[in-house]
Amino acid sequence: MEVRCGERRIILDAGSGIRALGERLRDAGGRVEAAVLLSHYHYDHLQGIPFFAPLAEPANRFTFLGPRREGRSVQDALEGQMVPPYFPVTLDQIARATLDFRSIEPGEPFNIGPVRITSAELEHPGGNLGYRLEFAGRSLVYATDVEHTDKPAESLVELARGADVLLHDAMYTGPEYEARRGWGHSTWNGALATAKAAKVKRLVLFHHDPERDDRALDALLWQARSSFPRTTAAREGQTIRVVRG
Ligand SMILES: [Zn+2]
Ligand SMILES: [Zn+2]
Hints:
The protein is an alpha/beta fold. The chain contains seven helices and twelve strands. The protein has two domains: about 1-105, Ribonuclease Z/Hydroxyacylglutathione hydrolase-like (Metallo-beta-lactamase, Chain A); about 105-245, Ribonuclease Z/Hydroxyacylglutathione hydrolase-like (Metallo-beta-lactamase, Chain A), CATH 3.60.15.
């Protein structure tokens, strides 16, 4: 996810989608400066980094932010996935851009330029941070990889309270979830329940199961909208304008 707040560019996680973003930024030309805010270090949230072309441009500048996990800093986590035999080129060898790394404390608010960020620990194996971004009176909450009990996670409802947009994990259907308890993901119904409890203005379902095709996603969205009309299913390349609700 790329979030634009005025001139400020914040990238949320760095899965395979960041490769296409890199192409777009390269084609747009000019210098790129961005903060890359990482929720956690599972592969599906990191694997695009070695293929993110703007890292190779000397004029660019990136600040990677994330929590310490298992005694490793955000820098350790990024460098650790780019060593042989996992990948032939190290981060240091690829990056001509200026790179900064900043460890963040879960739950402790901080700023990225004019953007205020708060975070909350979400239920996921190994930990995962949900983020709330506030800028110019608008708010967006990013909640990927979150498991709920039979009711919404209180910490997430608190984080998402009244947000203009909630991006929420929608990995499973109810029946699929039964066999995958404890895997750290939500059902689309869990996303709806959280959106309602937090009274958000708009819900965007994402982190779809990779096996869910467009037709299945449309059917799911149809059902979701009957209970929470302002719901969208995210797709790659989509742009969402965050307006004051
Ligand atoms: Zn994960
Ligand atoms: Zn994930």
